Amino acid sequence: ADFTVGERVRDEDGHAATVRYIGSVASAKDQKAVYIGVEWDDVTRGKHNGSAVGSDGVLVRHFVCADGAGSFLKPKKIKRGDTYGAVVRRRYVEMEAETISKDNKLDMDVASVRTWSGRELPIEFHGEMKIRSMQQVQDQEKVTVRDEMIAFAGDDAAEATPKINFLDVQGNLMWDWAQLSALGDQLPNLEVLRMNGNRMYMPTLPPQGLSPSATMKLRMLVLNSCGLNSWAQVALLERTLPCLDTLSLAFNDLEDLELILEAQANGGAGGADVPPPTPA
After folding, report:
1. pLDDT (0 to 100) of residue 96
2. 94 phi and psi, to 5 degrees?
Protein backbone atom coordinates (compact mmCIF):
# COMPACT_ATOMS: atom_id res chain seq x y z
CA ALA A 1 0.00 0.00 0.00
CA ASP A 2 1.09 3.59 -0.60
CA PHE A 3 2.24 5.94 2.13
CA THR A 4 -0.09 8.71 3.31
CA VAL A 5 0.68 12.20 4.61
CA GLY A 6 0.30 12.16 8.38
CA GLU A 7 1.12 8.45 8.62
CA ARG A 8 3.57 7.26 11.27
CA VAL A 9 6.57 5.15 10.25
CA ARG A 10 9.85 3.75 11.57
CA ASP A 11 13.24 3.40 9.94
CA GLU A 12 15.34 0.22 10.03
CA ASP A 13 16.82 1.30 13.39
CA GLY A 14 13.39 1.75 14.98
CA HIS A 15 13.32 5.56 15.01
CA ALA A 16 9.81 6.97 14.57
CA ALA A 17 8.75 9.76 12.22
CA THR A 18 5.68 11.33 10.63
CA VAL A 19 5.21 11.43 6.86
CA ARG A 20 4.94 15.09 5.81
CA TYR A 21 5.52 14.94 2.06
CA ILE A 22 5.39 12.43 -0.82
CA GLY A 23 6.83 13.24 -4.23
CA SER A 24 9.85 14.46 -6.13
CA VAL A 25 12.57 16.48 -4.38
CA ALA A 26 14.15 19.62 -5.86
CA SER A 27 17.72 18.51 -5.06
CA ALA A 28 17.37 14.95 -6.41
CA LYS A 29 19.27 13.94 -9.55
CA ASP A 30 16.27 11.96 -10.76
CA GLN A 31 13.32 14.33 -10.73
CA LYS A 32 10.93 11.45 -11.43
CA ALA A 33 11.94 9.56 -8.30
CA VAL A 34 9.44 9.58 -5.43
CA TYR A 35 10.74 10.36 -1.96
CA ILE A 36 9.06 10.34 1.43
CA GLY A 37 9.60 13.53 3.41
CA VAL A 38 9.51 12.75 7.13
CA GLU A 39 9.66 14.71 10.35
CA TRP A 40 11.56 12.74 12.99
CA ASP A 41 10.38 12.54 16.59
CA ASP A 42 14.05 13.04 17.46
CA VAL A 43 14.54 16.54 16.07
CA THR A 44 18.31 15.99 15.78
CA ARG A 45 18.06 12.96 13.49
CA GLY A 46 17.27 14.79 10.25
CA LYS A 47 19.26 17.10 7.98
CA HIS A 48 16.96 20.01 7.14
CA ASN A 49 13.66 21.80 7.76
CA GLY A 50 11.72 20.28 4.86
CA SER A 51 13.33 22.35 2.12
CA ALA A 52 15.78 21.53 -0.67
CA VAL A 53 17.80 23.53 -3.18
CA GLY A 54 17.23 22.75 -6.85
CA SER A 55 19.85 22.65 -9.61
CA ASP A 56 18.93 26.24 -10.44
CA GLY A 57 19.84 27.36 -6.93
CA VAL A 58 16.25 28.05 -5.92
CA LEU A 59 15.18 26.98 -2.45
CA VAL A 60 12.04 24.83 -2.52
CA ARG A 61 10.11 24.10 0.67
CA HIS A 62 8.40 20.73 0.39
CA PHE A 63 7.11 20.67 3.98
CA VAL A 64 7.62 22.55 7.24
CA CYS A 65 9.37 21.21 10.33
CA ALA A 66 12.01 22.27 12.83
CA ASP A 67 15.52 22.75 11.45
CA GLY A 68 17.31 19.40 11.60
CA ALA A 69 14.14 17.33 12.05
CA GLY A 70 13.47 16.61 8.36
CA SER A 71 14.71 13.98 5.94
CA PHE A 72 13.89 12.82 2.42
CA LEU A 73 13.99 9.03 2.23
CA LYS A 74 13.37 6.37 -0.37
CA PRO A 75 10.25 4.36 0.47
CA LYS A 76 12.25 1.17 1.05
CA LYS A 77 14.12 2.84 3.92
CA ILE A 78 11.06 3.09 6.17
CA LYS A 79 8.43 0.67 7.44
CA ARG A 80 4.70 1.21 7.78
CA GLY A 81 2.81 0.15 10.86
CA ASP A 82 0.95 -3.10 11.34
CA THR A 83 -2.49 -4.11 12.62
CA TYR A 84 -3.32 -4.40 16.30
CA GLY A 85 -3.99 -8.13 16.09
CA ALA A 86 -0.76 -8.91 14.25
CA VAL A 87 1.40 -7.00 16.75
CA VAL A 88 -0.34 -8.44 19.82
CA ARG A 89 0.12 -11.99 18.54
CA ARG A 90 3.83 -11.35 18.00
CA ARG A 91 4.26 -10.04 21.52
CA TYR A 92 2.22 -12.69 23.35
CA VAL A 93 3.39 -16.23 22.58
CA GLU A 94 0.71 -18.80 21.75
CA MET A 95 0.43 -22.17 23.47
CA GLU A 96 1.30 -24.01 20.25
CA ALA A 97 4.51 -22.04 19.67
CA GLU A 98 7.86 -23.81 19.94
CA THR A 99 9.17 -24.04 23.49
CA ILE A 100 12.45 -22.40 24.44
CA SER A 101 13.58 -25.40 26.49
CA LYS A 102 14.12 -28.99 25.36
CA ASP A 103 13.69 -31.61 28.08
CA ASN A 104 13.80 -28.74 30.60
CA LYS A 105 17.25 -27.67 29.27
CA LEU A 106 17.76 -24.15 27.91
CA ASP A 107 19.25 -23.96 24.43
CA MET A 108 21.92 -21.38 25.24
CA ASP A 109 25.68 -21.15 24.85
CA VAL A 110 26.03 -20.63 28.59
CA ALA A 111 23.27 -22.37 30.55
CA SER A 112 25.09 -23.94 33.47
CA VAL A 113 26.46 -23.17 36.91
CA ARG A 114 29.70 -24.24 38.54
CA THR A 115 29.49 -25.98 41.92
CA TRP A 116 31.88 -25.43 44.82
CA SER A 117 33.75 -28.56 43.71
CA GLY A 118 34.17 -27.24 40.17
CA ARG A 119 31.50 -29.36 38.45
CA GLU A 120 29.34 -27.82 35.70
CA LEU A 121 25.61 -28.44 36.21
CA PRO A 122 23.02 -27.51 33.57
CA ILE A 123 20.37 -24.92 34.42
CA GLU A 124 16.93 -26.50 34.11
CA PHE A 125 13.79 -24.57 33.23
CA HIS A 126 10.64 -26.10 34.68
CA GLY A 127 7.05 -24.92 34.26
CA GLU A 128 7.42 -23.21 30.88
CA MET A 129 4.00 -24.35 29.68
CA LYS A 130 2.36 -23.39 32.98
CA ILE A 131 3.81 -19.89 32.72
CA ARG A 132 2.77 -19.69 29.08
CA SER A 133 -0.79 -20.69 29.93
CA MET A 134 -1.06 -17.67 32.25
CA GLN A 135 0.22 -15.34 29.51
CA GLN A 136 -2.37 -16.11 26.83
CA VAL A 137 -3.49 -12.71 25.58
CA GLN A 138 -7.02 -13.84 24.76
CA ASP A 139 -7.55 -14.42 28.51
CA GLN A 140 -6.15 -11.06 29.63
CA GLU A 141 -8.24 -8.08 30.73
CA LYS A 142 -5.20 -5.78 30.78
CA VAL A 143 -2.87 -5.63 27.78
CA THR A 144 0.28 -3.53 27.36
CA VAL A 145 2.10 -3.29 24.03
CA ARG A 146 4.51 -0.34 24.09
CA ASP A 147 6.90 1.07 21.48
CA GLU A 148 5.72 -1.29 18.76
CA MET A 149 4.25 -1.02 15.25
CA ILE A 150 0.50 -0.75 15.89
CA ALA A 151 -1.00 1.66 13.36
CA PHE A 152 -4.18 0.05 12.06
CA ALA A 153 -7.22 -1.55 13.67
CA GLY A 154 -7.43 -4.55 11.36
CA ASP A 155 -10.48 -6.78 11.63
CA ASP A 156 -9.40 -9.29 14.29
CA ALA A 157 -8.88 -7.16 17.42
CA ALA A 158 -11.82 -8.76 19.22
CA GLU A 159 -10.53 -12.22 18.38
CA ALA A 160 -7.06 -11.36 19.66
CA THR A 161 -8.18 -9.77 22.95
CA PRO A 162 -11.86 -10.56 23.62
CA LYS A 163 -11.78 -9.84 27.38
CA ILE A 164 -9.75 -6.62 27.39
CA ASN A 165 -10.83 -3.54 29.38
CA PHE A 166 -7.41 -1.85 29.79
CA LEU A 167 -5.09 -1.12 26.85
CA ASP A 168 -1.71 0.61 26.92
CA VAL A 169 -0.25 1.24 23.44
CA GLN A 170 2.22 3.97 24.40
CA GLY A 171 4.79 4.80 21.72
CA ASN A 172 3.15 2.94 18.83
CA LEU A 173 2.36 4.31 15.36
CA MET A 174 -1.33 5.18 15.67
CA TRP A 175 -2.11 8.38 13.73
CA ASP A 176 -5.56 8.06 12.16
CA TRP A 177 -8.58 8.77 14.39
CA ALA A 178 -10.75 6.60 12.13
CA GLN A 179 -8.46 3.64 12.83
CA LEU A 180 -8.63 4.32 16.57
CA SER A 181 -12.42 4.47 16.33
CA ALA A 182 -12.48 1.18 14.39
CA LEU A 183 -10.29 -0.42 17.06
CA GLY A 184 -12.64 0.77 19.80
CA ASP A 185 -15.62 -0.65 17.91
CA GLN A 186 -14.02 -4.08 18.20
CA LEU A 187 -13.17 -3.68 21.90
CA PRO A 188 -16.52 -2.58 23.39
CA ASN A 189 -15.52 -3.28 27.02
CA LEU A 190 -12.53 -0.93 26.93
CA GLU A 191 -12.50 1.35 29.98
CA VAL A 192 -8.91 2.64 30.02
CA LEU A 193 -6.90 3.59 26.93
CA ARG A 194 -3.35 4.94 27.22
CA MET A 195 -2.21 6.46 23.91
CA ASN A 196 0.87 8.40 25.07
CA GLY A 197 3.26 9.27 22.27
CA ASN A 198 1.04 8.25 19.36
CA ARG A 199 1.19 11.37 17.16
CA MET A 200 -2.41 11.69 16.00
CA TYR A 201 -3.02 13.51 12.71
CA MET A 202 -5.83 15.92 13.53
CA PRO A 203 -7.26 16.25 9.97
CA THR A 204 -8.36 12.59 10.28
CA LEU A 205 -10.72 13.40 13.19
CA PRO A 206 -14.27 13.17 11.75
CA PRO A 207 -16.60 16.18 12.31
CA GLN A 208 -18.80 13.98 14.49
CA GLY A 209 -15.87 12.75 16.60
CA LEU A 210 -15.34 9.08 17.42
CA SER A 211 -17.90 6.36 16.90
CA PRO A 212 -20.32 6.13 19.87
CA SER A 213 -19.94 2.35 19.98
CA ALA A 214 -16.15 2.74 20.23
CA THR A 215 -16.26 4.77 23.43
CA MET A 216 -19.40 3.67 25.28
CA LYS A 217 -17.50 2.44 28.38
CA LEU A 218 -14.29 4.47 28.17
CA ARG A 219 -13.55 6.10 31.56
CA MET A 220 -9.93 7.14 31.12
CA LEU A 221 -8.19 8.39 27.98
CA VAL A 222 -4.52 9.39 28.09
CA LEU A 223 -3.37 11.47 25.11
CA ASN A 224 -0.10 12.86 26.45
CA SER A 225 2.37 13.88 23.71
CA CYS A 226 -0.05 12.99 20.92
CA GLY A 227 0.50 16.09 18.79
CA LEU A 228 -2.85 17.69 19.56
CA ASN A 229 -2.89 21.38 18.63
CA SER A 230 -6.41 22.69 19.22
CA TRP A 231 -8.69 22.76 22.24
CA ALA A 232 -11.68 23.03 19.90
CA GLN A 233 -10.75 19.60 18.53
CA VAL A 234 -10.37 18.22 22.05
CA ALA A 235 -13.81 19.56 22.94
CA LEU A 236 -15.27 17.80 19.88
CA LEU A 237 -13.55 14.58 20.91
CA GLU A 238 -14.77 14.87 24.50
CA ARG A 239 -18.42 15.18 23.43
CA THR A 240 -18.25 11.64 22.03
CA LEU A 241 -16.97 10.17 25.32
CA PRO A 242 -20.10 9.93 27.50
CA CYS A 243 -18.54 7.94 30.38
CA LEU A 244 -15.19 9.74 30.48
CA ASP A 245 -14.05 10.97 33.89
CA THR A 246 -10.30 11.37 33.22
CA LEU A 247 -8.74 12.98 30.14
CA SER A 248 -4.97 13.56 30.21
CA LEU A 249 -3.48 15.99 27.66
CA ALA A 250 0.02 16.75 28.95
CA PHE A 251 2.71 17.88 26.49
CA ASN A 252 0.34 18.92 23.70
CA ASP A 253 0.48 22.38 22.14
CA LEU A 254 -3.14 23.51 22.53
CA GLU A 255 -2.40 26.90 21.04
CA ASP A 256 -5.98 28.17 21.03
CA LEU A 257 -6.78 27.30 24.65
CA GLU A 258 -5.90 30.69 26.14
CA LEU A 259 -8.00 32.51 23.53
CA ILE A 260 -10.99 30.26 24.20
CA LEU A 261 -10.72 30.64 27.98
CA GLU A 262 -10.37 34.41 27.61
CA ALA A 263 -13.44 34.56 25.37
CA GLN A 264 -15.44 32.50 27.88
CA ALA A 265 -14.30 34.70 30.77
CA ASN A 266 -15.46 37.77 28.87
CA GLY A 267 -18.76 36.17 27.89
CA GLY A 268 -17.84 36.31 24.24
CA ALA A 269 -19.23 34.09 21.53
CA GLY A 270 -15.79 32.79 20.61
CA GLY A 271 -15.95 30.14 23.31
CA ALA A 272 -19.65 29.95 24.00
CA ASP A 273 -20.14 26.54 22.47
CA VAL A 274 -16.85 25.05 23.66
CA PRO A 275 -16.95 23.37 27.08
CA PRO A 276 -14.26 24.28 29.63
CA PRO A 277 -11.32 21.87 30.00
CA THR A 278 -11.77 18.80 32.16
CA PRO A 279 -9.00 18.43 34.77
CA ALA A 280 -6.98 15.23 34.41
Report:
1. 63
2. -85, 160
